[in-house]
Amino acid sequence: MSSQRILHMGALLLFVLSIGYGIYYEIFLRPEQQQSLIYNLDMALNMATKGDLSTASAFAGQFGNVNQSMSVQSRIPQHLALAGAMLLAPLLLEPKLPVNERIKLILSLLMVFGGILLAAGELIQTLELAELGWYISLAGYAWLGLGLLGYLVFGLIFAEVHAGQKAKRG
C-alpha cells in the first residue's frame, strides 16, 4: 500500500471515527452524564443545607469527576477530526517529493497511528487512568508532530533543491 493511499484512508478513517464517536457521545453518554451532574449538584446542596458537610463534599467531588469526564469525552471527536485534517496536509506535497517511498510510508503510518493514539489516550483518561491516558495522548501528539515535521523538512529540502536548479538554468 502506498503512503498516499495510507494518508487518504487514514484521514477517512479518522473522520469516520470522529463522527461515530460524536454520535455515540451525544446519544448515549452525554444525557446520562448531564443527569448525573444535576443529581450530584442537587445532593451536594441538599446535604450542605442540612449540615452534613462530609456527604456534601463527597457529592461535590463526584460532580467534579463527572464534569471532568464530560470535558474529556467531548474532546475526543474533535481530536479525531483534527488528526484526520492533519493527514490531508501532506497529501499536497507527497506526490512531488523525491523521497524514498519507505520514508513516506513511515511518516504516513506515524501520523495515522498518532491520531488514533491521541484519541485512545483521551478515552483512557475517562476510565480513571488519567495519568496513563495523558501520556498516551502526549505520545499521539508527538507522533503526529513528528510525521508532519518529517514532511515539512523533506518539503523544504525539495523546495531548496528545486529553487537551486531553477537558478542554475535561468
Structure in words:
It contains four helices and no strands. Helix 1 (3-50) runs antiparallel to helix 2 (53-93), helix 2 packs parallel to helix 4 and helix 3 runs antiparallel to helix 4 (130-169). It has helices at 3-50, 53-93, 101-125, 130-169. The two termini are 39 Å apart. The protein is mostly helical and 170 residues long. The chain has one domain (3-169). 91% of the residues lie in helices and 0% in strands. 26% of the residues are buried.
Task: Encode the helix/strand succession as letters.
Answer: HHHH
Could you describe the largest sheet, including whether it forms a barrel?
none
Question: Mean of residue pLDDT?
Answer: 91
Assembly classification: single chain
> How many strand segments?
0
Helical content, roughly? over 70%
Low-confidence stretches: none
Number of helices: 4
Measured on Cα atoms, how large is the radius of gyration? 23 Å
Characterize the overall form: elongated
Q: Provide the β-strand percentage band.
A: under 5%
Number of domains: 1
- Structural class of the helix and strand makeup? mainly alpha
Give the end-to-end Cα distance, rounded to a whole number of Å.
Answer: 39 Å
